[in-house]
């Protein structure tokens, strides 16, 4: 289902000149295109035994609020007038209620849970398993809780969003969010990141409890956008 939604929007984007990139995490070389920042010895690695390859974000045992933050090592996307953007990732985590996580496109920030200025993203809070959908520009957040978007521990799920920027008004746009191919949120906002703000793909996992290592497995991240 996610693939048909991707193809639907991709067809629109590919009517213009476009940029497309997939990280499938088949080898260590792909994670060198990201910068991992960890508190208390959390790690970013590529799994050796997963079909199709995967990146593993692993936190440290016995440490609440332990963070593994992963940001692209360069920033290549701006939300200029009329830009269309697709983002698709498949991931799972071995715990979903206590942990916080973010995934999406961000101005580089190594502590998303604490605060950040700019991004379009999915997130889950400490204390619930909901998948929320957000847009944040110049620290103004437009956030919606998903109606049917709960994550399940240790089960892969697909998260996809499409951004449609207004062709005449800066920082105005609409983002359409899907979980497992089902629309869960739509955020229309005049506070998207400004065109001057360059962003990159990123993901962050933060434990919300002590006592166990937490692992997030990212099968892939794909971005496609009009040049
Ligand atoms: Ca993969
Ligand atoms: Ca959570
Ligand atoms: Ca907690």
Task: Please tell me about this protein's structure.
The protein is mainly beta. The chain has one domain: Jelly Rolls (Sandwich). It contains two helices and 15 strands. The strands form two sheets. Strands 1, 3, 4, 6, 11, 12, 13 and 15 form an eight-stranded antiparallel beta sheet that branches. The chain has a seven-stranded antiparallel beta sheet with strand order 2-5-14-7-8-9-10, with no helix packed on it. Strand 9 and strand 10 form a beta hairpin. The chain binds calcium ion (CA) (3 copies). One calcium ion (CA) binds next to loops.
Please give the CATH class.
Mainly Beta
The poorly predicted ranges are none
Our estimate of the beta-strand percent is over 45%
- Derived structural class: mainly beta
Structural domain count: 1
Name every ligand kind in the structure.
calcium ion
CATH architecture descriptor: Sandwich
Q: How many β-strand stretches?
A: 15
How many H/I helices? 2
Shape field: globular
* Mean pLDDT across every amino acid position: 95
Q: List the helices and strands in order.
A: HEHEEEEEEEEEEEEEE
- The name of the CATH topology is Jelly Rolls
What gyration radius follows from the Cα positions, in whole Å?
16 Å
Helix content: under 10%
- Summarize the biggest pleated sheet: 8 strands, antiparallel
Could you tell me how far the N terminus lies from the C terminus, measured between alpha carbons in angstroms?
Answer: 26 Å
């Amino acid at each position: 289902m996610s693939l048909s939604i991707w193809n639907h929007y991709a067809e629109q984007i590919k009517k213009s000149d476009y940029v497309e990139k997939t990280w499938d995490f088949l080898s260590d070389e792909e994670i060198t295109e990201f910068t991992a920042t960890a508190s208390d010895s959390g790690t970013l690695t590529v799994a050796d035994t997963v079909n199709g390859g995967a990146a593993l974000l692993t936190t440290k045992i016995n440490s609440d609020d332990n963070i593994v933050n992963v940001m692209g090592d360069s920033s290549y996307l701006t939300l200029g007038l009329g830009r269309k953007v697709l983002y698709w990732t498949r991931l799972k985590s071995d715990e979903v209620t206590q942990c916080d996580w973010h995934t999406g496109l961000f101005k580089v920030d190594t502590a998303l849970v604490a605060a950040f200025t700019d991004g379009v993203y999915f997130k889950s809070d400490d204390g619930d398993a909901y998948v929320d959908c957000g847009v944040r520009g110049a620290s103004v957040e437009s956030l919606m809780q998903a109606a049917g978007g709960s994550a399940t521990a240790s089960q892969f799920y697909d998260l996809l969003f499409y951004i449609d920027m207004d062709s005449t008004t800066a920082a105005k746009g609409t983002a359409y969010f899907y979980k497992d191919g089902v629309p869960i949120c739509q955020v229309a906002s005049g506070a998207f990141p400004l065109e001057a703000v360059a962003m990159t793909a990123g993901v962050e996992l933060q434990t919300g409890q002590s006592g166990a290592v937490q692992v997030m497995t990212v099968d892939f991240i794909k971005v496609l956008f009009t040049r």
